[in-house]
Amino acid sequence: MKLLIGGSPCTHWSIARKGRETQPEGIGWELFDNYLIARDKFKPEYFLYENNKSMAGPIREQITAELGVEPILINSARVSAQSRQRLYWTNIPDVKQPEDRGIILRDILESGVPMQEKTYTLKAQYFKNGIANFVTNGGFGASAVAEPMRIGTIESGTQTNHDSKPFRVYSPDGKAVTLQGEAGGYGAKTGLYAVPVDPAGFAGGGAVYPITFDAEGQMTAEIGGRARVIYEVRDGRITIKGQQYPVKLADGFYIIRKLTVLECKRLQTVPDSYIFPVSDTQAYRQLGNGWTVDVIAHILSFCPGITEKPLEVLSMYDGMSCGRLALDKLGASVAAYWATEIDKYAIQTTQANFPDTVQLGDAFRVREDGWKPWEGVKQ
Question: pTM score, two decimals?
Answer without folding.
Answer: 0.85
